[in-house]
Amino acid sequence: MTEKKLKLLSAGAVKGGVAQLAAQFEQATQCGVAIDFAPAPELRERIAAGEAADAVILPQSMMDELAGQGKVAADSRAFLGRSRMGIAVHATAPQHDLADTAAFKHLVLGASAVVYNNASSGIYAVKLMDKLGLAPIIGSKIVVVKSGAAVMEYVAAHPPAAVGLAQISEIMVLIAKGCPVRLAAPLPDEIQNSTTYFAAVMTDAAAQLAGSLVRFLTTPAAKSAFAATGID
User: Of 63, 103, 114, 150, which has the fewest Cβ atoms less than 10 A away?
Assistant: First the structure.
């Protein structure tokens, strides 16, 4: 391995695919990739405060903000995929038919805790609880944690009736690590939310190498890797 190294800031929802692909990029180019995974709102704040990196992966709305501020090279932006939200329950929890909104509401009302994070998926979860009229009913049972991983860790530690709302990709990562949770179902179609993720080169970056990394993340093989982790 040479001394060349890129710094990548990435939202946690795409962690499974990004970590795998970054390792492949290192092998192919002999250029190291140091990845800092964090909730997207935290990354936005850090970048706004002046933190530098070579490339960044964020939801489209936040990437639009950075482009408008001149912090990413607009012509380097590349679509990675979309992440849908899912319902996580303890591995020992009963099976539920969650095909529609009524079934989802029944599950939430019977939960011992409803857990989400304070990142992109959690922002949507707050809106969803309000939209469905659930917030005033379950208010005392709502638990807000920092990250998608923390959602699953809480559900795992509170069997069998805690319910977590998170990106499907994050649920799959924790399951693969042996966390005793399972994906009960995606959110029903009528209340589903998709977050679109983009990668881009930051304006103070090692542009050529960073551009190579961004392009590597968008190849057909990369799309297959992302699909296997819940990003389509």
Answer: 103
Query: For the chain, give me the number of helices (H) and strands (E)?
Result: 10, 9
CA 118 to chain centre: 12
The predicted pLDDT at position 205 comes to 83
Distance CA 90, CA 154 (A): 10
Give the residues of the chain that fall short of pLDDT 70.
Answer: 1-3
Query: What does the pLDDT read at residue 1?
Result: 42
Here the tokens at position 96 are 């539920």
Nearest to 9 by CA among 73, 57, 76: 57
Tell me the C-alpha distance between 183 and 181, whole Å: 7
Cα 59 to Cα 158, 182, 204, 228: the distances in Å are 30, 25, 20, 19
184 in the same domain as 174: yes
Q: List CB contacts of 78: < 8 A, sequence separation 6 or more.
A: 198, 199, 200, 214, 215, 217, 218
Could you tell me the residue range of the domain that residue 12 belongs to?
Answer: 5-82+196-228
Phi and psi at residue 9, in whole multiples of 5°?
-100, 125
Number of structural domains found in the chain = 2
